[in-house]
Specification:
binds adenosine monophosphate; 16 helices; Four Helix Bundle (Hemerythrin (Met), subunit A); Rossmann fold; single chain; alpha/beta; 3 domains; 5-stranded parallel β-sheet; binds zinc ion
């Protein structure tokens, strides 16, 4: 398995610390506002990484943090407090704002079929761990005090600029007016912030009442759940020069070494040539797609067509194209299944070597820095190949463990059978002879809309069906359809 490692700036062979086990930490969302499709782009990509390792036989522990402490709107120690900004905007407490947007994030994860992380940890629930870590850093002599709090002294870590490959003087030349003029270097950063009486979230600490600086939570929680040394740390590429550079410095201060062996960074999802971002206000939410009638997995399909290091320019037109392609894929899988049901299995199987070759090519795509576009293109090639229906069907469902497009469930929904098993074991009971293809299509669409929680679309279809004389009833896990 090769992964592009920001530490070395090259594709490195992946060597796990423990055999067959991978520990992955992903920088999670800041929950002061909705997570938009740009954020979700990152998590679909990291989900693909997790799915890839699991497919290849590794046990994975995936840890993701939730930043719910009020940090400042800039990466450096200046700007407005994000959580308080959210609270003011909506007239809610900072705690309510966090709960509200954690819920919105979880709904987006689930709509996009992103594997739930094994640990999702909130910064506010790990204040003690952050304090303990800062104490270690202080004890090791990496800190100094200013009026604003306890600061990490980057001059004590000579490799500070190495990770980002940036010239710090250049990066910080002309930087905004410092909130903390006592800092020795503009890039020294706060570990614990004090003397902010107006700040709502405050905790007692050895350095006075205050709150943690925003980088410490990731070092505290990644090492708590994965150990001082773990395999992979992920995040958006904007984290390279500040957040991850500071994480590496903190870990050096606390443990004398940095934490993760591989640091992976995703490119951005853009919209009209600009990064989609909460602060730019050009964001689109997964809920917006659902309201427009898209299956949210269409976004997943679109994202999988871009490599995580290439990024993607989002447009409604490209989403439309993805919808057509994904529906085509569902239709193909459904047709394969129908033909298998009709004709029986074990017909016209190819040489076992032939199927193995396809499997090998798929693994090659995964081992190539988990190249999802390459893996998806292979699926389309497979469909056109002369493998048997049975082999194609088996391989597509097998590969879908990585794609996460729910091929089997969606194909089942489309099978025009007397009785069939839909997702959540719904059984459609109907006298098939009474139904035309068009009606079956509508029933499928309604079920998909219901699964996507697009209830207004589902209701609309129900009304359409009623106007054609068919009454739908969801009863005891079954869909009953009666001709009126
Ligand atoms: P935030 O909530 O702003 O802390 O962002 C959470 C995660 O989403 C970070 O790891 C970001 O790198 C990532 N992210 C934010 N915007 C985008 C975007 N437009 N494209 C890709 N990733 C993004
Ligand atoms: Zn982080």
């Amino acid at each position: 398995m090769k992964l592009y490692n920001t530490l070395t700036r090259k594709l490195d062979d992946f060597k796990p610390i423990k055999p067959n086990f991978v520990g992955i930490y992903s920088c999670g969302p800041t929950v002061y506002w909705n997570q938009h499709i740009g954020n979700m782009y990152a998590y679909v990509q990291w989900d693909s990484l997790v799915r890839t390792f699991r497919y290849l036989g590794f046990k994975v522990k995936w840890v993701m943090n939730i930043t719910d402490v009020g940090h400042l709107t800039s990466d450096e120690d200046s700007g407005e407090d994000k959580m308080e900004k959210g609270a003011k905007r909506e007239g809610l407490s900072v705690w309510k704002i966090a709960d509200k947007y954690i819920q919105q994030f979880k709904e987006s994860l689930s709509a996009l079929n992103i594997t739930p992380p094994d640990v999702m940890c909130r910064a506010t629930e790990h204040i003690q761990e952050q304090i303990d870590l800062i104490k270690k850093i202080e004890l090791n002599g990496f800190t100094y005090h200013t009026q604003t709090g306890l600061v990490f002294d980057t001059s004590k870590f000579s490799a500070y600029a190495e990770f980002s490959h940036l010239n710090l003087d250049q990066q910080y030349a002309g930087a905004r007016v410092e909130v903390d003029s006592e800092k020795k270097k503009p890039w020294d950063f706060l570990l614990w912030v004090t003397n902010q009486p107006n700040h709502i979230m405050q905790w007692d600490s050895p350095w006075g009442k205050g709150f943690p600086g925003w980088h410490i939570e990731c070092t505290a929680m990644s090492t708590k759940y994965l150990g001082e040394q773990f395999d992979i740390h992920t995040g958006g590429k904007e984290h390279i020069p500040v957040h991850h550079t500071n994480e590496i410095a903190q870990a050096y201060g606390a443990f004398g070494r940095q934490t993760a062996n591989y640091w992976l960074h995703n490119e951005w999802l853009m919209f009209d040539g600009q990064k989609i971002s909460k602060s730019l206000g050009n964001n689109v939410l997964v809920g917006d797609l659902i309201n427009k009638g898209y299956n949210p997995l269409t976004l997943r399909y679109l994202v999988l067509n871009s490599h995580y290091r290439t990024g993607l320019n989002f447009s409604w037109k490209s989403l439309e194209g993805a919808q057509t392609a994904l529906n085509r894929l569902y239709d193909i899988v459904s047709e394969l299944k129908q033909r298998l049901d009709l004709n029986g299995e074990n017909k016209n199987l190819s040489e076992p070597e032939e199927e193995k070759k396809w499997q090998q090519k798929f693994v090659e795509a995964l081992e190539n820095d988990f190249n999802m576009p390459q893996a998806l293109a292979l699926a389309w090639e497979l469909i056109k190949s002369n493998l048997s229906d049975q082999e194609k069907y088996a391989l597509l469902l097998d590969w879908d463990q990585v794609f996460g497009l729910n091929l089997a469930q969606n194909a089942k929904l489309k099978i025009q059978n007397f009785e069939y098993q839909a997702e959540k074991s719904k059984v459609l009971i109907i006298s098939r002879s009474k139904l035309t293809q068009d009606l079956l299509k509508l029933i499928d669409e309604r079920e998909l809309a219901r699964q996507a929680k697009n209830f207004s679309k589902a209701d609309q279809i129900r009304q359409d069906l009623e106007s054609q004389g068919f009454k739908l009833k969801d009863q005891e896990g079954k869909i009953l359809i009666n001709k009126k």
